[in-house]
Amino acid sequence: MVGWGNLVSRRFTAVDIFSGAGGLSVGARMAGISPVMAVEFDQYAAATYRRNHSEIAENVLQKDIRLVDPLDHTDKYPFILFGGPPCQGFSTANTKTRNLDNPNNWMFKEYLRFVQELEPEWFLFENVAGFKSFNGGTFAKEVEEALQNPFGDPNKLAYVTSSTLLDAADFGVPQRRKRFFIVGHKKQSGGIKFDFSSLKKRPLTTVGEALADLPKLDNGQMLDECAYRSKPDSAYAKFMRGKLHKAKQNYVTASKPHIIERYKVIPQGSNWEAAKEKGLLDSYTSTKHTHSGIYKRLLENEPAVTIANYRKSMLIHPWEHRGLSLREAARLQSFPDHFIFEGPHSYQQQQVGNAVPPLLAKTIFEQIKKYTEANKECGQLLK
Predict the structure, then answer these.
(1) Residue ranges in the chain modelled with pLDDT below 50
(2) Measured CA distances, 379 to 72, 183, 208, 369, 383 (Å)
């Protein structure tokens, strides 16, 4: 096991489904919650999860979740179940069948099945920010109501829930990234209604604070290990580095020379339009529908824009004329430097882009534990 310290009490156990590389589980670890099982279909993301949670490697299932009986792999009543099922049936392009009956939403139904089978004390459901606004919020409400009554009994409220959008930048992550969350607590355990406004916000962490100590790299360099550029100047960089002396997975996609020439004329905070003004986008037949995030050079004194597939959008390093390295993108997502991604480089990049920022997850899980401890103390006083 790398970097996690001792296992926490078995009381605070977690099951992570649709886990991806494990951003939620990293946040859970930081909060003192111990994952005991994970399910992920993608082979490389599952390999990454196993690599970084080696103590439960045999219980990281790289399978179609429909074929998984959770009680074959873990005990009933875990402390928390969490995950973010893709819901293609809620796509904004799918205007006629955006509802829970759409067969494309079977993955949400599998999330619901795990709640039914395991009956966790808490659950956390997460999804993209746009999930909340589909059809004026109708479908987010439908999902939340289904989670309140996972056993299908309209007269039995099994879980008390609350939901909201959160921006990772408000909780110390050096990135503007909004995610939608539903948190539920079992009514039989007290039925705590999670108050998202109680989450402690932190000062903004900037790109410069996050990246300043990482190695200076050239376009196309692929260094497994490299000395840090400097000592960590920020509390964030110190936390990310831990006790490491070398930065790992300093992998930069090789951009063609004409791409580098575009990078050179784009100042911090600007995008492809700066290159167009210099006549360097002649190969584009049209820029009418070009997204504002394409060829975006990050501002050093602000949190980053959302780190999605940063290679395809060609995000530019704030000071150097190249794309971001894998380690830099992971830093901006708040993955600690000891975290290692598996698979081909393009799959590693996608794992970073798909993840829930661990520091955002940590904040939520810490508050869940506080509620739990307060609820326990209250119950003891009433005895």
Answers:
(1) 1-8, 91-97, 380-383
(2) 32, 21, 47, 15, 7
* b/e 5-31 (16+ beta carbons within 10 angstroms → b): eeebeeebbbbbbbbbbbbbbbbbbbb
Q: At which residue do the structure tokens 């119950």 appear?
A: 379
CA 120 to centroid of chain Cα atoms: 21
From the list 143, 75, 74, 151, the residue with the least C-alpha distance to 115 is 151
Alpha carbons within 13 A on the beta-carbon side of 366: 15
Phi, psi of 77 (to 5 degrees): 65, 50
135: left (phi over 0), alpha (psi -120 to 50) or beta: left
Given a contact cutoff of 8 angstroms between Cβ atoms, the answer to whether 212 and 151 are in contact is no
**What are the structural domains of the chain?**
13-200 (3.40.50.150), 207-354 (3.90.120.10)
Instruction: Count Cα atoms within 13 angstroms, Cβ side, for 105.
Output: 19
Q: To which H or E segment does residue 39 belong?
A: strand 34-39
Which residues does residue 66 pair with via DSSP β-bridges, in sequence order?
none
The label of the residue with tokens 């355990």 reads 189
Tell me, rounded to whole angstroms, the distance of Cα 238 from its chain centroid. Answer: 21
Local structure of 343: helix, strand or coil: coil
Model confidence, pTM: 0.91
Tokens of 251: 């992998």
Whats the size of the chain, residue-wise?
383
254-309 confidence digits (pLDDT tens): 999 999 999 999 999 999 899 888 888 877 766 665 677 789 999 999 999 999 88
Alpha-carbon gap, residue 357 to 225, rounded angstroms: 23
